[in-house]
Design goal:
Protein name: D-lactate dehydrogenase
CATH topology of the largest domain: Rossmann fold
Number of helices: 10
Helix content: 25-40%
Family: Belongs to the D-isomer specific 2-hydroxyacid dehydrogenase family.
Strand content: 5-15%
Low-confidence stretches: none
Pfam family, one: 2-Hacid_dh_C
GO molecular function: D-lactate dehydrogenase (NAD+) activity; NAD binding
Number of strands: 9
Mean pLDDT: 94
Number of domains: 2
CATH architecture of the largest domain: 3-Layer(aba) Sandwich
Structural class: alpha/beta
CATH superfamily of the largest domain: NAD(P)-binding Rossmann-like Domain
Keywords: NAD, Oxidoreductase
Largest sheet: 7 strands, parallel
Length: 258
């Protein structure tokens, strides 16, 4: 696709996303194509992240399933965020917005980032995993962060801890996560992104094969999977379109000035 764009004279590509992981930047540069991303309201993903945390610690998937079936008995007791330690991995615009929202709940918040920038307690990644009751991922997907939560790091997490991912699916080794969940070592997971989501998310897959890993996750009562929709708000979409156009105009203006 990049070659085809270069052949018709495209010199600037604006992706309406924060992440670049779906574009081969080195190959694009070799073709003379510059690539720009967009910023949009971090509140869209931050709000959704908090919702997933609350959903996970209150076992809401099981509560709703029982209620829909007419079973209104009490189930497992929930947890309150003020009694928990939340570990935020990545404190860019979205991660920092998550940190700010968590302050209102009164619990301990710790963070890991290669470039600390937020007013929060920073720990090494391994130490963060050891102390956190909830780990939420907000770091870009790169060669260094691929499978950031691998089998070894998942074993470092507290028994009964929860994983929330609204970043990129491949930040987690999904097979290792499934094993940790099925064994009962982890308390649950809330995932808005997933490895191999391409061709599945944003499609009507009713009656189709969506892959064994997704099926295994969906069958677990303590796992919630949503189809990469955390960003999907009116404000965020307006921001993405506006900033994409501004990026193109800025590029054109720079080119016209040599």
């Amino acid at each position: 696709m990049l070659r085809a764009l270069a052949r018709v004279g495209v010199r600037y590509l604006s992706t309406r996303s924060v992440g670049y992981d779906h574009i081969d930047l080195e190959y694009a540069a070799g073709l003379g194509i510059a690539v720009g991303n967009v910023a949009y309201s971090p509140g869209s993903v931050a709000d959704y992240t908090l919702m997933l945390m609350l959903l996970a610690v209150r076992d809401l998937k099981s509560v709703l399933a029982r209620a829909a079936a007419g079973d209104f008995r009490l189930g497992a007791r929930g947890k309150e965020l003020r009694d928990l330690t939340v570990g935020v991995v990545g404190t860019g615009r979205i991660g920092s917005a998550v940190v700010e929202r968590l302050r209102a709940f009164g619990g301990r918040v710790v963070a890991f980032d290669s470039s600390p920038r937020a007013a929060v307690e920073y720990l090494s990644l391994d130490d963060l995993l050891r102390v956190s009751d909830i780990v939420t991922l907000h770091t870009p997907l790169t060669g260094e962060t691929h499978h950031l939560l691998d089998r070894r790091r998942l074993r470092l997490m507290k028994p009964g801890a929860f994983v929330v991912n609204t970043g990129r699916g491949a930040l987690i080794d999904t097979d290792a996560l499934v094993s940790a969940l099925e064994s009962g070592r982890l308390g649950g997971a809330a995932l808005d992104v997933l490895e191999g989501e391409e061709g599945v998310f944003y499609s009507d897959c009713r009656g189709k094969d969506v892959g064994s890993r997704l099926l295994r996750l969906q069958e677990l009562p303590n796992v919630v999977v949503t189809p990469h929709v955390a960003y999907y708000t009116d404000r965020a979409l307006r921001d993405a379109v506006e900033n994409s156009i501004l990026n193109c105009l800025d590029f054109e203006s720079g080119a016209l000035h040599g």
